[in-house]
Design brief:
The complex is a heterodimer of chains A (about 220) and B (about 200).
Chain A lengths: L1 H12 L7 H17 L3 H33 L2 H6 L5 H30 L6 H27 L6 H27 L5 H30 L1
Helix pairs in contact in A: 1-5, 2-3, 2-5, 3-5, 3-6, 3-7, 5-6, 5-8, 6-7, 6-8, 7-8
Chain B lengths: L2 E10 L2 E11 L4 E5 L6 H8 L7 E5 L5 E4 L11 H11 L6 H6 L15 H15 L3 E5 L7 H16 L3 E5 L9 E4 L20
Parallel strand pairs in B: 3-7, 3-8, 5-6, 6-7
Antiparallel strand pairs in B: 1-2, 1-4
The chains are: A mainly alpha (about 220), B alpha/beta (about 200).
């Protein structure tokens, strides 16, 4: 398992590995929002938590295509399926490496981008906490979508359609926690619900993903 | 431990391609699968490797014993030869990749990125992967594609060494490897066209 994680991270950082794809997209979205909405700092600070969460979610979605497709194309998935490592574990590791290369950088970049959107000072901690708790769920659900669509040529659209509804609860509670925090309210309740969603998906989704992948490998 | 296939039927894309396939491979023995293109050799091998379910029949002795090598080698273009091989060795719980590098004369290439190798060199690396798995049954689908005569000889001697150590091999190939192995022609086992799985209109035909 460590070997797989190590290899995936190494591949992500080498040329063409796709590290920074999500981060760059996140950056572009949040930089462009003030231009499109206009420079009213009141308005910006109202929409900041929502925009940051939406940007993070779309950035995650953008990089899901690569999660399994590359391994499928060069035959690695077939070989992994016959390896002693259970497919459930392999997919959990894949989701973890996706989070480490996409989700974690987004969490770390969010406060800087919050500054550009005039996020209220109280909101930073809540924003980071909600993103840190919520983005793992995005990766795990994304791995499920990728496993279902990996055999399909250019299945990106289908995967987005499958995955986006599953992302909605995470988005609602994550953005709500960040919004309440920014307004100076207590955001504990949405944060706890968000943590619940994340833990539930981490516990259950690998089994669904592995079952889906076995179907698509046939 | 032997690999026993008994009355196996396999399907590709829901259409049965082979049925009634039965054979046994004992330790130290190899079996060469032959048959025309589209006869179902790949489907049969993938089924035995556990990548797809069988329509019916039994496969015994295939749990956690099979090292499968298909048309794709599972190599990462941005990893070096040793990194690729070490990864697979670790996945299978081994660490020594030197015998595999030596058997396929990959030593001079060890620090090259796999993406810069020629097709034949990639295939050699893909076959070297079998040696680091430590699995007793090699299930190989057209292993000699894009190999030159020298590399085929390397492959044949690697298989011979594997068999001598008590391993087994099931190889689908069109060329003569010079192995002392039985041949199994799948052509007579082609499934009848009317045996479609899940066909509900059989009674009306």
């Amino acid at each position: 398992m460590i070997a797989l994680l190590h290899r995936d991270l190494m591949l992500a950082f080498r040329a063409g590995g796709g590290f920074g794809l999500g981060l760059a997209f996140f950056l572009i979205v949040t930089v462009l929002v003030p231009f499109s909405v206009g420079p009213q700092s009141e308005l910006l600070s109202t929409i900041a938590p929502g925009v940051l969460w939406l940007g993070a979610l779309l950035a995650c979605l953008l990089s899901l295509d690569r999660l399994l497709a590359l391994d499928f194309e060069d035959g690695t998935l077939d070989l992994l399926a016959t390896a002693p490592l259970p497919l459930e574990a392999a997919l959990s590791i894949k989701a973890l490496s996706h989070w480490l290369t996409t989700g974690l950088p987004l969490v770390l970049a969010a406060p800087v981008l919050g500054l550009m959107l005039n996020l209220a000072p109280d909101g930073y901690l809540w924003l980071i906490a909600s993103l840190a708790l919520g983005t793992p769920a995005l990766s795990v659900i994304g791995a499920f979508g990728a496993a279902l669509t990996v055999g399909i040529k250019r299945g990106g659209l289908l995967m987005s359609l499958l995955v986006l509804p599953l992302y909605v609860p995470t988005l609602i509670f994550g953005a709500e926690a960040a919004r309440r925090g920014a307004m100076g309210l207590d955001g504990t309740t949405p944060l706890i619900l968000l943590a619940g969603i994340t833990l539930g998906t981490i516990a259950l989704m690998p089994f669904a993903s592995a079952a889906g992948l076995r179907m698509t490998l046939r | 431990m032997t690999l026993c296939i008994h009355d196996l039927a396999v399907a590709r894309g829901g259409v049965p391609v082979l049925s009634g396939v039965s054979f046994e491979i004992a330790p130290g023995a190899a079996l060469i699968l032959r048959g025309p293109n589209g006869a179902g050799k790949t489907t049969l091998l993938r089924t035995i490797a556990g990548l797809q379910p069988a329509l019916s029949g039994q496969i015994d002795g295939a749990d956690e014993t099979i090292a499968y090598a298909g048309h794709a080698d599972g190599l990462k273009a941005m990893l070096s030869v040793t990194e690729n091989l070490t990864f697979w060795a670790q996945v299978f719980g081994n660490s020594d990749i030197e015998p595999a590098l030596a058997a396929y004369q990959l030593d001079p290439l060890r620090d090259r990125l796999a993406g810069t190798l020629s097709a034949g060199q990639k295939r050699r690396l893909g076959l070297a992967r079998l040696m680091v798995t430590g699995r007793p049954v090699w299930v190989l689908d057209e292993p000699t594609v894009s190999l030159d005569a020298d590399a085929v000889a390397m492959f044949a001697s690697a298989v011979t060494a594997h068999l001598r150590a008590g391993g087994m091999a099931l190889i689908a190939t069109h060329i003569d490897l010079g192995l002392n192995a039985a041949t199994y022609d799948v052509a007579p086992y082609r499934a009848k066209a009317d045996q479609r799985s899940g066909a509900s209109d059989e009674a009306f035909l």
